[in-house]
Input
Amino acid sequence: MIVARTLRVAGYDEHEIVEAGNGIQALESVAEAPPDVVLCDWNMPEMSGLELLTALRSAGWTVPFGFVTSEASPQMREAAMAAGAMFLIAKPFTAQDFQDALDPMLA
Amino acid sequence: MTYIPSADDLEVITREVWTSFLDGDPSGLVPRDSDNTTDDKVTGCVHLSGAYTGAIMLQCSPPAARDAAAALFSVSPDDVTPAEVVDAMGEIANMVGGNVKSMLPGPSTLSLPSVIHGRLSLPGSQVVREVTLAWRTQPLTVSLWRQAS
Output
């Protein structure tokens, strides 16, 4: 909910936000209606965010993917980028953090 | 020598989370003595396992937890549901815990948050750092636990 609220504050209120409760639901959701971008937590039920990204890429999905997570160690950023993530936004974040990451794709 | 985040570190992280998401006023959180009351509590907790095994716990009164959920989700305190209180306390514990984890020796894994209405004790673990602040006159305690090796 705080991500959705921050997206509105950042000016993306005209975009539809589809939420998935876990990684498996996210896989199904991407297959059903590929989004402009996937924002994903690192720790999730069923599968981790990194596992979801790997599964998407293995299935051939090239949808832009970024992490929004409370952890942001250099090792995690490295692992995220190596797996194909475009950005990692650390909590606590600001609307500007989302604009910096998303404007190149959505603006 | 392994660095363990100090009580000041816990306070800085908590203030950052609070200022970003719950209360734009940095003076909204004020130092106070430890909360030794036996009042009812809501507790959010994330566990760490790996190079550092323990937990980060956030504990406050039910009214403070309700107000935190209202602030986090931009709704009226009167409209906050019990599920939103659980979501908010879990999210705040996750944010504080993730930032504390980044200061601890790694690699470690951070669990999904758990939230209970009450106090939580972790047998076999002890508090190594703790800070108590007051938010809207209500005590808010953040603690770092370590499992005995």
Q: What stands out?
A: Chain B has one domain: 7-22+38-147.
